[in-house]
Amino acid sequence: MSDHSLWFEGIRFPEKTHNREMLREVRDNFVVKDEDTIIVTYPKSGTHWLIEIVCLIHSKGDPKWIQSVPYWDRSPWIEVKLGNKSLKDQQSPRIYTTHLPIHLFPKSFFSSKAKVIYGIRNPRDVLVSGYYFGKQMNIVKNPETLEQYIKLFLQGEVIYGSWFEHVHGWLSMRERENVLVLFYEELIKDTRSTVEKICQFLGKKLKPAETDLVLQYSSFQFMKENKMSNGIRFHDFFVTENSTLMRKGIIGDWKNHFTVAQAEAFDKIYQEKMAGYPPKLFPWE
Ligand code: A3P
Fold it and tell me: Rounded to the nearest 5°, which phi and psi values hold at 217?
């Protein structure tokens, strides 16, 4: 029986929203411009939060844009068509989003000055978030139990492939001037300084009162209530009326879900795959 997914270059994608032609086209022919900003994440790492922050930085905290235009039109996914607009309709300076691993990212980026913000989150929380998200969607066939989902995640057979490979690929870019690596955990613990870091990276100067507005309108509660940000209802592949992109918005929720055995099994693979990074690079360690 089909599980509604397609494979491209070793990565699993949902066939309802992706196709090989588009993935190939994006990698080989999408022309990235120097003034573009691209938000890159592995799914469930806080993508929508970053979109909201970047949009609000652009509007200097004015919420009109985020309250009137759905997030997928403000910052379209380059590899998937969610809204009505074509990618080419975006006005400069363009903001894009993607979950693509580096080997599928537009080649033109690597000789451009476009800015990439790469968001990372503790893979255990990514996993739990993805497990619940999968239950809200009928986009691909997802495993019933967390145990099965952990197995699939560790094998890299969930949507967008292995978290480890994604992070290795993108972290190899972290010394580049036009790549900013951010952690969801930093955003939670010190939202203001992290937002200021993003402003600096984007070359935007905000007054303290404007930064206050960015924080206010990108807060979990505000985003949850803003249907242009939590606009899950616009998609026919979300199952229930109560489906939400803003589930809990905390760090360490995995501890409420993993058994001791699951945590140990995860750790063993994590240690093997993540050996060699400088100590304290990852805030959850
Ligand atoms: P949880 O499912 O753990 O709650 P993505 O945007 O990549 O799909 O990631 C979704 C995760 O980011 C969800 O995690 C969601 O709650 C969290 N998130 C979204 N907006 C947030 C915000 N403003 N503050 C904190 N977490 C947020």
Answer: -80, -10
**What DSSP line would sit under 148-169, residue for residue?**
HHHHHHHTT-SBT--HHHHHHH
Please tell me whether the peptide bond between 70 and the residue prior to it is cis, using omega within 30 degrees of 0. Answer: no
Which among 51, 71, 129, 163 is the best mutation to test ligand 1's pocket, defined by most ligand atoms within 8 Å of the CB? 129
Structure tokens, 187: 């955003």
- pTM strictly above 0.90: yes
Question: What ipTM was reported for this prediction?
Answer: 0.99
> Residue 13 is inside which H or E element, if any?
strand 11-14
Report which protein residue has its CA nearest ligand 1's atom 27: 249
Structure-model confidence comparison of residues 142 and 1, the more confident one:
142
Residue nearest to atom 12 of ligand 1 (CA): 46
Q: Pairing state of beta strands 37-41 and 115-120?
A: parallel
Q: Which pLDDT does position 202 carry in this prediction?
A: 98
Regarding the beta carbon of 169 and ligand 1, being less than 6 Å apart is answered: no
Which residue's CA is the closest to the ligand 1 atom numbered 8? 44
The CA distance from 20 to 109, in Å, is 20
For the segment 134-149, what is each residue's pLDDT rounded down to a tens digit? Answer: 888 777 888 889 999 9
**What one-character DSSP code corresponds to residue 37?**
E
* Domains of the chain, each with CATH number or no CATH: 5-273 (3.40.50.300)
Q: How many helices (H) and strands (E) does the chain have?
A: 12, 6
Q: What is the DSSP letter of 99?
A: -
What's the pLDDT band for 83 if we cut at 50, 70, 90?
low
